[in-house]
């Protein structure tokens, strides 16, 4: 591509110079010829070939020398391409540079091309372009910079900078190859002369000329054209910024810096130069200070002093001050540079205090214009008065987020100014720093606050740099060898071991060692940077006042959030550095500053009035800064619906900035914790004040509302965020104390205890609670803390104490293992206990604070008791903690009111102590082997003395007793004491002596019978079971009968058991448990008595197999029967005057059910596990007497419970001999007697469903055992009772018995299925009863609510078939009407299949009846045939009725199952026809029955409804007026819904009349049937013929209705095929026929129909065939 371009350009030169310049033309032609002669394989090969042909560029040089624009443009373009591709001959570079100089004045394009050539020449020919050649290159470039064209000038400036940088790049390359390149010359340096290499020499000459050019002197190397000073400065800056290393390592360059550049800069700083030049001077100075401070310390000292001087507003303009501050901002961001400056100047004698003077300038600047920075009493948000909307919004934020009346009111005094007040990122910053405005000729417009924002940033950078350097040095670093010896390093600062030899290492106490204290950097004497460490310490120690003064000023200025956070962070960093360097004075000063900024000012707090009531937080156990309190504060600050009262407007609150400072203070305390020592008081007093301020702000009402929903949301979110951060910091602060050494921990604890001492001392005697009456007023003032300098009202003491106590409790909780592991004087235990006990016992203190102190002590005791303690220390630790509890409890009991009552505060403290006692017993209970009497007496003291005395004097003299009512002193005390009882019963029963167990049982009985707390009573009942298990393991239950062997009366037995239990006899104690539980079963609370019953049952379940028969009988009669007697008494009592409520009765009924169920399970378990149950019969009989008494209550619920126990017990009896025949019969008698009290049921209208279900279930259980011993009449009566249950049962809500039987119906059907039917009279009774069940659905009123009995009817039908099949050979069921009742009950559903609409799921009730009827007839028909006499006809009448019901359907609508039902009926009819056709023709049956059957078939076979008078009386004369034809009609008649059944019955009529050549024995029967059916068949065939004769002539050509036509065709064809029974139809007069007599009877109608059918071919053909058959059989009488 290059060759082609060059060839084209040469061709252009040849063409353009033909007549103008022959020399150029010839040179161009020769060059073109050389170019063409080259073999071009690649660009590189071409470049190499051309570079070896010096004459090739001759035409281009000639063209340049002509200074012709056209020739020069072409030549320069070619030279540019050749230079880039390194194709220029090296020996002619001088000529090329001369040619370029000649073309400098040509067009702009040529000038730009030249500027493109120069960098490539320097880059591609570094060896050749040196010395003069390099000077020529730079000269050409500088000349082009003076071009008038702006593009050329700017490009030349950039190219010049690029060329100079390339020169210094050569130096860097040359330095890398220093051993390969020899020196070429010697040059002067500060210490004499040095030898330098070629590139370094060029760079020195260029840099020297640039500096000479800057000072206005004549250059010595490059003949620069006049250049702007800005350009020169920019080139110098580029050199310094890109090659600072060269400047530092080359002495010759350093000499230039020191001798030429720095003097120029220092002189320029003092001159009043323009902004562009000054800007670039400052930039160069910034680079020199940052990179070469150590090379030129004196010069830099002068320059930095001038910068400090320029900060004076009288010395410099604002933009120069801004430039200086921007330089300092950059310097202070580099910790190394900062310390270098301080060590070189401030620390050295005779040197200027550069850093100190700069900080002093900052102090002056901070206070220069207070109104501009919005200086006020405290920090506020800046306000931009130019923007009304922003102003209002910011002011609202300030008012909502800071102190009312301070922030937002005094921030800005110059209200007439239009300038923003305060420092904000919105208007106090420049988008581009002033030092970066290289393209500006004038300084940019700067905000008035820009200077002060820079000062603030400088202070921030100083703190960041110090922290960046010091903080990493304070971290412990361990080498591998040191880690191996780590256990030996765990020593306290005093040199003693960190843990006693007997102590164990716990997870939270492993760091109680010296290494938790940060490393003091000043102790790192071997550190490489130790000199700088000392410098940093000196800097902080000497300069902290100026830093603090500046920070304090800005803390009270109007700063936006970003600046304020940065300022707080700066203070935090400086404080941390001072603390880590162990500089207490600056550390405490900065901590105090932060503390004051974290809480409202003293002038506001001094006028705080006492709230009308104490804040809610001061009475709670929560500590400082819980989230709820601060969120409430945020919400209160944003409430817009209340106007602030006078008091509320003067109440201080914590704003977001207060919280920010508070968080910074907490973070500092975390970082410096072990080193703070006395400074802890600053932190805790600040937290205390903050806690108090929040309490007042939440109590005192709302502030002035702010406008704008967005502002409100922002403020609320801001406060909530800060709140969360502060709370997290406070939590981490106290958590960090777990890692403190003991000495540091005690210092923290003493600081907190000092707060409660101050609060307690300031509380006047007798003042326990703040006054709640009257308007708020200024009360007596007191000193709050040395830090804040505030004085607050005495009502704040309670809040102060609550805060301090909460923090003490938190501290103790986090260090509980320390308190348990170390001696009390070392760990702080003595300090903790002494202060808390003293405070809680002081009645002058507020109640809530006393409670809090007691809770903290008890909680600490509990936590220590729960910790793992070595065996050798256990006794000492337990004595330590229990002695503290004893001191607290004993002081409370001595101060009662004299009448046995206690003050509320004492009761509550007592409760806390009891709770702690329980916790201690949890840990030490197994080791308590004495003092149980005292323990139980203490626990019993929660009950009143009167109830205790009554309990002692009251002996239970009756087997059935009502539990005594026990009064407790305090419900809460009772609960607390019961928790200890619960613990003893659960875990420590083994430690209780036997003689004290009866006292424990009495205590449990008291807790069960107290009426204050149901849950407590229920739990106490549960513990009876625990005691029972414990006693059983230690007793021999076989001794039970001997305890009461001398007594038989139940009351005496109970008293004997009580006496023996006090003696500590384990078996008596076990039985006493059951007796006490039986007493509770009559408690008025249902839950409690039911729980007692279940507990008794579970005890028997566990130990029934270990009870002998005598022992079990003793328990049964003394405990279980006693429960029944007691329950009966209650049941009778609640139903007498005044009667109990329905709910109470229902609850007692449930209890009765539970009692009886428990007895049932107990008896069942006894029978399962005890082989000899001979004594059970007598006990069962006695129990039946008790159970029967429940019937007198007239309650179905009680009846259900009685029958349930009967079922449950008898179901577990294997055979009748187990109980005995007499008890079984008695059971049946009791069972039957339930219905004897039916009249009592009306007095108690209850649902009877469940009672009847259990009644039926009891029947099955009784019948299983007593089947052989029950008389037939008794069994029938029992079945009648079951039938009565079904009929009288109530409706089940939300349930239906259409598809599924109810539980009761199922049970009754099962009962009937169980009955053995061999006894006389039972089959008949069962069949009749089940038949009645089948008709129950049709007997009940459809509108009346109740069971439908549909599913029951279906089930009874299935059982009917079973029983009939079983007794099919029993002649009695045929003669006594049982079978007739069955058929009658089945016929009714079949007949009413479409009239009754509750059929249920498939099969429907009528289908089930149909199937059952077919099945019964299939089974019994063979026996029915053999019947004679009166029993025969009723049965056959029902059979005919059943068949009629099957074929008939009384339809008013078209059901969706009609076709399926029709198919079902046709199938059934087919089965029945095969069964009854021949038997129905029996001569023993009357002809009327057969005629009825035929008539039923005729009526069903009618396809269309007949018209009035069309059918004669079917019963007497069916063929009357056979040939009369009605009037014709043309309308279509209505067809029946069941046409298939119609044709089936019509076909059956033809079949009955037809002649059969079958069995001879059947012929009489078939003749009888044919004779009965013939008249109806003839009439049936005449009907379509008469209709055709009447209607067809009227219709004309209109077709006959399809149904009529099909019927007519079917009849005509069947008539033609029919061979009728000869004996069925009498002969017609004058005509003889054997099988066609039916045609003779219809002949007149056939003839008439034939006459009218001539137009109907199909009908006419059928009629003609009939005529042929009739004619063939006609004959003439012989007469």
TrEMBL record:
A Pfam family matched in the record: Mon2_C
Similarity comment text for this entry: Belongs to the MON2 family.
Keywords: Coiled coil, Protein transport, Transport
Residue ranges annotated for the Mon2/Sec7/BIG1-like dimerisation and cyclophilin-binding domain, each copy included: 4-175
Gene Ontology CC entries for this record: Golgi apparatus
Protein name, per record: Endosomal peripheral membrane protein
Domain Mon2/Sec7/BIG1-like HUS residue range list: 200-354
Parts forming coiled coils: 7-41
PANTHER family according to UniProt: GUANYL-NUCLEOTIDE EXCHANGE FACTOR, PROTEIN MON2 HOMOLOG
Polar residues composition bias: residue spans: 759-774
Gene Ontology biological-process entries: protein transport
Annotated region described as Disordered, given as residue ranges: 477-512, 759-780
SUPFAM superfamilies documented for this protein: ARM repeat
Species for this entry: Karstenula rhodostoma CBS 690.94
């Amino acid at each position: 591509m290059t060759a082609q371009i060059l060839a084209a350009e040469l061709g252009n030169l040849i063409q353009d110079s033909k007549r103008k310049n022959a020399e150029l033309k010839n040179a161009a032609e020769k060059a073109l010829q050389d170019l063409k002669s080259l073999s071009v394989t690649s660009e590189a090969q071409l470049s190499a070939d051309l570079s070896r042909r010096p004459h090739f560029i001759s035409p281009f040089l000639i063209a340049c020398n002509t200074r012709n624009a056209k020739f020069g443009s072409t030549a320069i373009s070619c030279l540019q391409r050749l230079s880039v591709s390194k194709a220029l001959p090296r020996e002619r570079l001088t000529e090329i540079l001369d040619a370029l100089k000649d073309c400098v004045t040509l067009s702009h394009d040529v000038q730009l091309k030249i500027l493109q050539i120069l960098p490539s020449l320097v880059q591609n020919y570094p060896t050749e372009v040196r010395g003069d050649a390099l000077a020529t290159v730079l000269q050409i470039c500088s000349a082009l910079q003076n071009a008038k064209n702006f593009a050329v000038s700017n490009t030349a400036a950039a190219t010049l900078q690029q060329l100079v940088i390339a020169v210094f790049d050569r130096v860097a390359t040359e330095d890398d190859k220093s051993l390969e390149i020899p020196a070429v010359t010697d040059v002067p340096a500060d210490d004499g002369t040095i030898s330098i290499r070629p590139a370094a020499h060029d760079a020195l000459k260029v840099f020297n000329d640039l500096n000479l050019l800057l000072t206005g002197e004549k250059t010595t190397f490059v003949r620069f054209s006049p250049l702007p000073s800005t350009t020169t400065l920019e080139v110098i800056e580029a050199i310094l910024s890109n090659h600072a290393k060269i400047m530092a390592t080359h002495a010759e360059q350093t000499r230039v810096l020191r001798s030429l550049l720095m003097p120029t800069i220092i002189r320029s700083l003092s001159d009043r130069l323009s902004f562009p030049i000054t800007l670039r001077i400052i930039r160069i100075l910034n680079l020199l200070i940052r990179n070469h401070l150590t090379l030129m310390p004196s010069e830099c000292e002068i320059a930095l002093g001038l910068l400090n001087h320029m900060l004076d507003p009288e010395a410099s303009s604002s933009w120069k001050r801004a430039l200086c501050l921007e330089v300092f901002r950059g310097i202070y961001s580099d910790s190394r540079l900062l310390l270098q400056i301080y060590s070189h100047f401030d620390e050295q004698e005779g040197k200027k205090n550069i850093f100190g003077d700069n900080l002093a300038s900052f102090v002056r600047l901070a206070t220069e214009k207070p109104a501009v920075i919005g200086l006020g009493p405290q920090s506020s948000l800046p306000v931009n008065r130019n923007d009304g909307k922003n102003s209002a919004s910011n002011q609202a934020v300030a008012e909502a987020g800071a102190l009312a009346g301070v922030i937002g009111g005094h921030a800005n005094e110059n209200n007439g100014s239009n300038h923003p007040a305060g420092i904000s990122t919105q208007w106090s910053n420049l988008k581009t720093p002033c030092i970066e405005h290289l393209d500006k000729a004038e300084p940019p417009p700067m905000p008035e606050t820009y200077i002060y924002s820079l000062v603030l940033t400088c202070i921030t950078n100083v703190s960041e740099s110090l922290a960046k350097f010091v903080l990493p040095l304070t971290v412990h670093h361990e080498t591998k060898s040191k880690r191996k010896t780590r256990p030996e390093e765990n020593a306290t600062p005093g040199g003693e071991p960190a843990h006693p030899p007997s102590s164990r290492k716990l997870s939270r106490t492993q760091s109680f060692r010296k290494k938790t204290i940060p490393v003091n950097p000043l102790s790192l004497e071997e550190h490489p940077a130790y000199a700088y460490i000392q410098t940093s310490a000196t800097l902080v120690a000497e300069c902290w006042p100026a830093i603090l003064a500046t920070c304090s000023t800005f803390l009270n200025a109007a700063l936006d959030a970003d600046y304020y956070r940065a300022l707080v962070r700066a203070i935090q960093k400086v404080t941390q550095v001072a603390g880590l360097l162990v500089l207490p004075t600056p550390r405490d000063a900065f901590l105090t500053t932060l503390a004051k900024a974290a809480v409202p000012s003293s002038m506001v707090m001094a006028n705080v009035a006492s709230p009308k009531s104490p804040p809610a937080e001061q009475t709670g156990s929560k500590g400082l800064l819980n989230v709820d309190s601060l969120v409430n504060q945020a919400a209160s600050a944003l409430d817009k619906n209340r106007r602030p009262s006078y008091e509320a407007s003067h109440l201080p609150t914590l704003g977001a900035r207060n919280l920010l400072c508070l968080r910074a203070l907490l973070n500092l305390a975390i970082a410096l914790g072990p080193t703070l020592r006395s400074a802890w008081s600053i932190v805790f007093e600040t937290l205390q004040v903050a806690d108090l301020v929040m309490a007042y702000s939440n109590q005192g009402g709302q502030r002035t509302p702010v406008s704008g929903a967005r502002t409100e949301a922002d403020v609320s979110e801001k406060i909530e965020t800060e709140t969360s951060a502060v709370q997290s910091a406070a939590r981490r602060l106290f958590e960090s104390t777990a890692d403190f050494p003991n000495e540091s921990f005690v210092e923290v604890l003493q600081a907190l205890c000092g707060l409660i001492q101050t609060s307690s001392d300031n509380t006047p005697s007798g003042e326990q609670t703040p006054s709640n009456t009257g308007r708020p007023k200024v009360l007596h003032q007191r000193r709050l803390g040395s830090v804040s300098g505030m004085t607050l009202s005495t009502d704040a003491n309670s809040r102060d104490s609550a805060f301090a106590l909460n923090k003490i409790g938190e501290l103790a909780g986090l260090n509980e293992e320390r308190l348990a592991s170390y001696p009390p004087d070392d760990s702080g235990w003595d300090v903790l206990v002494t202060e808390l006990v003293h405070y809680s016992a002081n009645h002058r203190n507020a109640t809530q604070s006393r409670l809090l102190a007691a809770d903290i002590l008890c909680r600490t005791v509990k936590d220590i008791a729960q910790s793992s303690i070595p065996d050798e220390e256990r006794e000492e630790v337990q004595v330590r903690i229990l002695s503290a509890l004893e001191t607290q409890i004993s002081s409370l009991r001595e101060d009662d009111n004299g009448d046995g009552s206690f003050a509320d505060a004492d009761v509550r403290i007592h409760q806390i102590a009891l709770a702690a006692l329980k916790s201690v017993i949890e840990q030490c209970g197994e080791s308590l082997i004495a003092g149980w009497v005292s323990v139980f007496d203490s626990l019993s003291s929660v009950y009143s003395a009167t109830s205790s005395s009554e309990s002692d004097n009251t002996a239970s003299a009756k087997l059935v007793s009502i539990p005594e009512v026990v009064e407790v002193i305090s419900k809460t005390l009772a609960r607390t004491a019961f928790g200890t009882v619960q613990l003893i019963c659960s875990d420590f029963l083994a430690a209780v002596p036997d003689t004290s167990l009866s006292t424990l049982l009495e205590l449990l009985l008291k807790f069960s019978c107290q009426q204050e707390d149901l849950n407590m009573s229920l739990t106490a009942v549960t513990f009876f079971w625990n005691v029972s298990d414990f006693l059983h393991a230690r007793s021999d239950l076989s001794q039970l009968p001997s305890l009461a062997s001398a007594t038989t009366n139940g009351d005496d037995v109970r008293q004997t058991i009580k006496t023996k239990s006090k003696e500590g006899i384990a078996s008596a104690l076990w039985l006493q448990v059951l007796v006490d539980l039986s007493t509770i079963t009559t408690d008025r609370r249902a839950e409690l008595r039911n729980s007692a019953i279940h507990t008794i049952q579970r005890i028997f379940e566990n130990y029934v197999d270990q009870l002998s028969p005598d022992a079990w009988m003793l328990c049964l009669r003394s405990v279980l029967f006693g429960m029944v007697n007691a329950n009966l008494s209650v049941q009778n009592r609640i139903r007498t005057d005044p009667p109990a409520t329905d709910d109470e009765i229902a609850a007692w009924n449930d209890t009765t059910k539970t009692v009886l169920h428990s007895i049932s399970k107990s008896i069942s378990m006894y029978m399962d596990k005890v082989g000899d149950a001979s004594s059970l019969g007598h006990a069962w009989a006695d129990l039946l007497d008790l159970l029967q008494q429940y019937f007198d209550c007239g309650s179905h619920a009680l009846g259900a419970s009685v029958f349930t126990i009967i079922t449950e017990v008898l179901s577990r009896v294997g055979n009748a001999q187990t109980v005995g025949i007499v008890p079984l019969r008695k059971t049946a008698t009791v069972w039957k007697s339930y219905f004897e009290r039916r009249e009592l049921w009306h007095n108690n209208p209850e649902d009877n469903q469940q009672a009847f279900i259990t009644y039926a279930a009891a029947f099955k259980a009784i019948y299983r055992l007593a089947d052989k011993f029950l008389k037939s009449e008794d069994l029938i009566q029992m079945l009648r009772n079951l039938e009565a249950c079904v009929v009288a049962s109530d409706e089940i809500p939300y349930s239906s018995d259409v598809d599924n039987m109810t539980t009761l119906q199922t049970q009754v059907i099962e009962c009937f299925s169980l009955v053995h039917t061999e006894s006389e009279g039972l089959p008949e009774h069962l069949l009749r009863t089940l038949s009645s069940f089948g008709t129950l659905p049709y007997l009940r009123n459809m509108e009346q609510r109740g069971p439908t009995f549909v599913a029951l009817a279906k089930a009874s039908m299935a059982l009917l078939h079973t029983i009939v099949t079983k007794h099919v050979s029993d002649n009695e069921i045929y003669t006594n009407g049982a079978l007739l009742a069955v058929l009658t009950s089945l016929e009714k559903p079949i007949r009413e299949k479409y009239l009754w609409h509750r059929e249920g799921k498939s099969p429907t009730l009528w289908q089930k009846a149909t199937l059952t009827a077919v099945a019964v007839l299939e089974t019994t028909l063979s026996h029915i045939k053999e019947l004679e006499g009166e029993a025969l006809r009723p049965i056959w009448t029902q059979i005919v009725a059943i068949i009629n019901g099957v074929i008939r359907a009384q339809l008013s609508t078209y059901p969706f199952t009609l076709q399926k039902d029709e198919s079902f009926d046709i199938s059934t009819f087919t089965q029945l026809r095969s069964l009854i056709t021949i038997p129905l023709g029996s001569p023993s049956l009357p002809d009327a029955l057969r005629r009825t059957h035929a008539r039923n078939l005729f009526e069903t076979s009618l396809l269309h409804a007949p018209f009035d008078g069309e059918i004669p009386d079917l019963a007497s004369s069916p063929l009357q007026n056979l040939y009369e034809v009605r009037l014709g009609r043309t309308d279509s008649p209505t067809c029946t819904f069941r046409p298939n059944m119609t044709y089936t019955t019509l076909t059956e009529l033809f079949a009955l009349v037809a002649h059969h050549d079958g069995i001879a024995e059947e012929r009489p029967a078939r003749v009888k049937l044919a004779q009965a059916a013939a008249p109806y068949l003839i009439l049936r065939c005449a009907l379509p013929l008469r209709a055709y004769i009447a209607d067809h002539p009227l219709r004309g050509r209109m077709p006959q209705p399809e149904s009529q036509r099909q019927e007519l065709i079917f009849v005509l064809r069947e008539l033609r095929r029919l061979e009728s029974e000869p004996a069925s139809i009498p002969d017609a007069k004058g005509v003889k026929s054997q099988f066609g007599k039916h045609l003779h009877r219809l002949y007149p109608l056939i003839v008439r129909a034939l006459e009218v059918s001539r137009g109907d071919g199909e009908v006419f053909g059928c009629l003609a065939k009939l005529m042929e058959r009739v004619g063939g059989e006609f004959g003439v009488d012989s007469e």
